[in-house]
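Re: [ENG-882] Designed sequences occasionally contain unexpected residues at chain ends

Forwarding the minimal case from QA. Structure tokens:
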């Protein structure tokens, strides 16, 4: 283990490291004699070495994150240039990712019929922070949380649909069964949908058995996945979504959501109205090779085709994704009830805050009035309050004894 330190070229360093060695530097500073012995700085040397190693590991982590994103980003940007008028944060600059630190990147696209904007969010592991990586690994091993802290690299495509178009609204999702519990517990909008993951349920609509779906209404499921059995084959051929989900992108697929509700409960509780933004969200485990990235492109294309189908149905030019009137009425009634309950909860919170503010103001006024009294009067009032509290305590004790 110490053979490297005994090399002849390191003899001067070994001599300086001996406790009784001659100092490598002597001098005076403000009439104080100083001498530098390297043997006295083992701790400082170890800290410098650790800092250098941490810096090198951080730089390697940044480089690795960049390399992992590059294949899919290149394939996605090439594909989106044929779909959107603008790919990238600026129309005047070449397409590229916008990085937020070393573990988050974004690709922005806009300028397409049926889609206001597309955000491709790359959420990578924090490899630039070795301490966090080690800590999260130890936490997952020993604490065994329901949702691991180290989830790996994810890509989420968020298609924001035009707000001017009138759609029926709703929540529908197709989720890989390995991620079903995490997605269902993490998202507020998934509480509107009922999960169907029983045996044979997915196969009845042509889906792979590794996938489950959640829907707010049966009519929504029929529009997205077709009806059960042969009756839904025509709808499945028309949308092409089921074939894309079962194809080469399945190993990387995690979830597909169509929703008009906030993703987090905090957004809902802050007063964000229901149905304000309809969007389609596709989440994949990030492919790390160009071949795997190209295998995922048919699914991305199918999701864009679904956005087109929603656009055509919303503008009255097609009925492919149009819901039945009773389904639309049920969805609207649910949203009205949720909005009313949310407004009632917010009203109670505001009322409680106002009551607390009034109590604080009343206590402040009483304290100011008390401070203006003479010391004798203050002492007298304190004694009165003490006796009153004592009588109250004695009365409570007698009631307990009678019981």
């Amino acid at each position: 283990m110490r053979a490297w330190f005994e090399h002849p070229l390191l003899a001067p360093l070994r001599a300086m490291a001996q406790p009784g060695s001659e100092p490598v530097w002597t001098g005076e500073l403000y009439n104080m004699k100083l001498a530098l012995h390297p043997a006295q700085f083992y701790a400082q040397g170890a800290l410098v070495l650790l800092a250098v190693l941490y810096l090198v590991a951080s730089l390697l982590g940044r480089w690795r994150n960049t390399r992992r994103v590059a294949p899919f980003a290149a394939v996605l940007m090439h594909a989106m240039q044929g779909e959107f008028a603008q790919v990238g944060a600026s129309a005047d600059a070449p397409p590229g990712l916008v990085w937020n630190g070393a573990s988050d990147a974004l690709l922005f696209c806009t300028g397409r019929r049926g889609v206001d904007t597309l955000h491709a969010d790359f959420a990578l592991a924090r490899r630039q922070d070795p301490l966090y990586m080690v800590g999260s690994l130890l936490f997952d091993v020993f604490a065994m949380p329901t949702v691991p802290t180290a989830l790996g690299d994810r890509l989420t495509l968020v298609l924001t649909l035009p707000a001017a178009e009138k759609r029926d609204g709703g929540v529908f999702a197709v989720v890989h069964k390995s991620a079903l519990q995490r997605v269902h517990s993490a998202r507020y909008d998934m509480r509107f949908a009922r999960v169907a993951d029983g045996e044979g349920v997915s196969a009845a609509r042509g889906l792979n058995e590794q996938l489950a779906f959640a829907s707010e209404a049966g009519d929504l499921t029929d529009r997205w996945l077709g009806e059960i059995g042969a009756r839904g084959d025509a709808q499945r051929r028309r949308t092409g979504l089921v074939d894309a989900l079962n194809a080469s992108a399945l190993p990387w697929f995690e979830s597909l959501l169509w929703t008009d509700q906030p993703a987090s409960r905090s957004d809902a509780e802050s007063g964000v109205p229901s149905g304000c933004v309809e969007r389609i969200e596709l989440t994949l485990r990030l492919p790390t090779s160009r071949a795997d990235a190209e295998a995922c492109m048919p699914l991305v294309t199918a999701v864009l085709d679904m956005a087109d189908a929603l656009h055509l149905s919303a503008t009255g030019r097609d009925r492919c994704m149009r819901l039945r009137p009773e389904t639309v009425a049920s969805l609207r009634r649910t949203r009205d009830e949720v909005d009313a309950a949310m407004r009632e909860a917010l009203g109670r919170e505001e009322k409680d805050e106002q009551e607390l503010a009034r109590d604080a103001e009343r206590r402040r006024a009483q304290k100011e009035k008390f401070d203006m009294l003479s010391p004798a009067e203050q002492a007298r009032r304190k004694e009165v309050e003490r006796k009153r509290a004592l009588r109250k305590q004695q009365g409570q004790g007698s009631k307990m004894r009678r019981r």
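QA comment: On inspection the terminal residues look reasonable. The first helix runs from residue 11 to 17. Proposing we downgrade this to a documentation issue.
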